Amino acid sequence: MKYLLNVPLAVGALAQALFAYLALMSAPWPNWEDGPSRGAMAYIMFQPAVLSWLMMLIAGIPAVFTDAFDWVPIAHRGRRRLALLVATLFVIATLGVCMFVALGASAAAGSSEDVPADPIVLIIGQIGGTIVPLLAMAWLAWLIDSPADRRDLAVLRLPALGTLGFTTAIGGVLGLQMLRDEIVIERATALEYQQMSDERDAGEREGIAKLTDADPLPRWLGYTDPLMLKDVRKQAVQRLATRPTLEPDLADALQSSDPDIVDGALRAIALVDFKPTAALEAPLRAALGNLPERIRVSRTEQPFDDEYVDRWFSSQWADALVAVEKLAASAGVDLRDVMSPIVQTTSEIYPKSRSAKSFPRDLAAADRKITDALAASHHTP
After folding, report:
1. 4 exposed, middle or buried (CB, 10 Å; 0-12, 13-18, 19+)?
2. Angle at 240 between CA 235 and CA 241, to 5 degrees
3. Alpha-carbon distance 365 to 201, whole Å?
4. How far is it, in rounded angstroms, from Cα 85 to Cα 302?
């Protein structure tokens, strides 16, 4: 059965030969000198490199458990196989590092940012990533196929072990260097993102602190967005509750041609602690009446996204439910008639969405609350 390992070795050798040819080209293909073309070339080279590396892995690990390495001077079979397994994994891993270096140093696709600065290390890495894997696969094939008394011929064993040992040492150094560089880059990136986040947070807190009742309501509505800091959002909601012109401003916002402002007004009605009056009935009815058409339009823009309504309209739906419940409780206004078309349109346009199932349940629960609220408001002296 060990002779079946020649199949992945042969496939790996062909893939490695193709990668070596591409990686050692002296110049890019004609008309492939620009950035996008070099990126495409890197992708083309990456595929045979990965295939070759995987074939080495597929052939190398099972070979450890055959008699191909019985000449290794470790008497205990279990210890010998364990030592060879660790060595095989390490060699294949370091060859992979060298292949990465060879790709980065390629004249056809590489970049100076992807290769070590030392020219000697660079050359060794290139050879280790292009030629040495072929030699390693050839030697492994020899160990698998040759008679037992000829496997450890010094004329083959010493050059093979010397080449692999030297290449592995360089590959290990390169791997550690690349790992260190990656850690440095990750830390720098994390620090940069943290600074950006801190600056954004400071800007949000500074922005809400500067707002006054004289500022237009749409500027306030942005600070009630769920993506805002919790303390900023809480402060915006609390301060809006004391805004003298809150209700007429909400009425104007609900009639805006900007859907974001309309959604912000719905959110404010749901979040702010106030008792809306019948003056909000007409603008709220108009805003909710536009939701079915917005859902239909979204389907034409996202024809293959069955869950688009779940991501972009679930929050408006939740805010609308709270808004109609509050208006029923505080002003005795019943807006359930404009909610049903939203449910019906969602079920028709997005039948596979979660909203098609949840909206009817939500409306049924809200219906009971609104009925109780309207009954209570009619009995209030």
Report:
1. exposed
2. 105
3. 37
4. 52
Distance CA 21, CA 192 (A): 40
CA angle 121, 124, 129 (to 5 degrees): 120
Q: In the numeric block, which tokens belong to residue 291?
A: 């939701």
Report d(CA 252, CA 275) in Å as an integer.
17
Residue corresponding to tokens 């991501």: 311
How far, in Å, CA of 354 to CA of 357, rounded?
Answer: 6
CB atoms within 10 A of CB 137: 23
Asked if 319 and 362 touch (Cβ cutoff 8 Å), the reply is: no
Residue 275 three-state SS: coil
For 139, the 3-state DSSP assignment is helix
Neighbours of 163 (CB within 10 A): 17
Q: Is the pTM of this model over 0.70?
A: no
Question: Cα(139)–Cα(67) distance, rounded to whole angstroms?
Answer: 14
What tokens appear for 369 in the block?
């609350």
**Over its length of 381 residues, how does the chain's per-residue pLDDT go in tens digits?**
788 999 999 999 999 999 999 888 877 777 777 767 778 888 888 999 999 999 999 999 999 898 888 888 888 888 888 998 998 998 888 888 888 888 877 877 765 555 555 677 677 778 888 899 999 999 899 888 888 878 778 788 888 888 888 888 877 777 777 777 778 888 888 899 999 999 999 999 999 999 999 999 999 999 999 999 999 999 999 999 999 999 999 999 999 999 999 999 999 999 999 999 999 999 999 999 999 999 999 999 888 888 999 999 999 999 999 999 999 999 999 999 999 999 999 999 999 999 999 999 999 999 999 999 888 876 554
Helix 259-271 vs helix 230-240: crossing angle, to nearest 10:
80
Helix (H, G, I), strand (E, B) or coil at 227: coil
Question: How many Å apart are CA 60 and CA 162, to the nearest integer?
Answer: 18
**Cβ atoms of residues 13 and 134 within 8 Å:** yes
Cα distance between the two ends of the chain: 93
Contact at 8 Å (CB) between 107 and 25? yes
Q: Which residue has the tokens 């769920």?
A: 226
Q: Which two tokens stand for residue 266?
A: 């719905």
CA pair distance 261, 184, nearest whole angstrom: 43
